[in-house]
Amino acid sequence: MTQTKNDALPISVRNVTKTYGKVFALNDVSLEIKSGEFLTLLGPSGSGKTTLLMVLAGFTRPDCGSLKFGAHEMIRTAPHLRDVGMVFQNYALFPHMSVAGNVGYPLRLRNVPKAERAERIERALETVQLGGYGARSIDQLSGGQRQRVALARSIVFEPRILLMDEPLSALDKKLRDRMQIELRHLHDKLGMTTVYVTHDQREALTMSDRIAVVNHGRIMQLATPQALYESPANRFVADFIGDSSFLPVERHAGTVAHAGQTLMLAHPIPETAELLLMIRPERIRLLRDTPPPHINCFKVCVTELVYQGDSFLLYGKTGQGAEIAMRGAVRDGTVSALPKLGDWVTLGLDPADTVLIDGTGV
Ligand code: ADP
Ligand code: MG
Q: What's the pTM?
C-alpha cells in the first residue's frame, strides 16, 4: 500500500447525543482520537458502541453534537464521502460475487478504472495474506478467510480512517487470538486512525493504544490499557476490566482503614464520597511465613480453591465477611502445599498494589 502515517486523520467527537425514544444510545459523548491511533470502544451489549461507530461512519445522524475529521465538520457529510473503511461483525460480504468482486466493490463505486482496480485488489489481498484468492467464491472460504476478505475490502481504497465493529466475534478463540495480533500489525503497517469495537476486555487490552470504556451511552474512562487496568476511575471500569475484589474502606487519620485495620498506601487517596479498595487477584499473595513488615495483611478463611493448570484461584472470606480472590502460580510442589477449604490463611498486599477507587461509580 502506498499509504503513510501522514495520511491518517484525528477524529474529534463533541457533545454527541443520540436518543431512540427514551433511550440515550449516546449521552453527551466527547472524545478526541489521535491521528494514527488504535482506539477501542469497550463496553457491555447495548452500551452504545455501535451507535457511536455508525455516527462516525455517517449511517446514523446524532440528535446534536459535532464530529470532525481533521479540521472538517462531518456531521452532514454522506457516508461514501467520508473516506472511511468499515468492517462489520457479520462481514456483510456479497455471497454471489467472487473474492475479487467483493474486494473491488468500493473501487467500482469510486469509478476506479478496471486495470488499476485489479492491481489494487491483488495488493489488498496480499496485505491480508490472501494473495491469489481473487477468483474464489465466498462460500469456498473459511470464517477466518471471509473476515480477511472483509478487511481487504475495507482497506482497498486506502481510507484514512478504519472502523471495525466486533469483527472477530464470529471466529473461534484460537483464530481470534491470532487475528487480534494480525489486525494490530496491519494497523501499524497502514497507519490509519482505527476505531475498534468490542465487548471483550482482553481483546481491547491486547490491541489498543487507548480504550474508551462505554456504559449507558457515556464514556466512563478513556485511558491506555495499563492505566485502565491499574487505576480504574470507578467500580464499573474496575469490574469490567479484569477480575477484582472490592473492600469498603473509610478515611482514617490521613490514610484509610478497612474493618478497623489501617492500610499502608503508595498512591494518593481519591477525593470521593465513597471509597473502595480494589484488589486484583494476581497482585495479592499467599503468605506462608511471618509477614514482612511493610505489607497489608488480610486473614481469610478459604471458601473455594480452583486448580486451573497454570495457576490456582483461592477465594477467602475475612472475619468481617469481605470476600477476597487471589491467583497464584502453580509450580512444582505448589499443589500439594495448597491450603484446604476452611483453613485460615494470611494474604499480603503491597502498598504499591493497594488501589483505591471511587465507590460511587455506575
Ligand atoms: P452496543 O453496540 O454497545 O451493543 P448499540 O449502540 O447497538 O449498543 O445500542 C445502544 C442502545 O441504543 C441500546 O439500548 C439499543 O437498544 C438502542 N438502539 C440502537 N439502535 C437502535 C435503533 N435503530 N432503534 C432503537 N433503538 C436502538
Ligand atoms: Mg454493537
A: 0.89
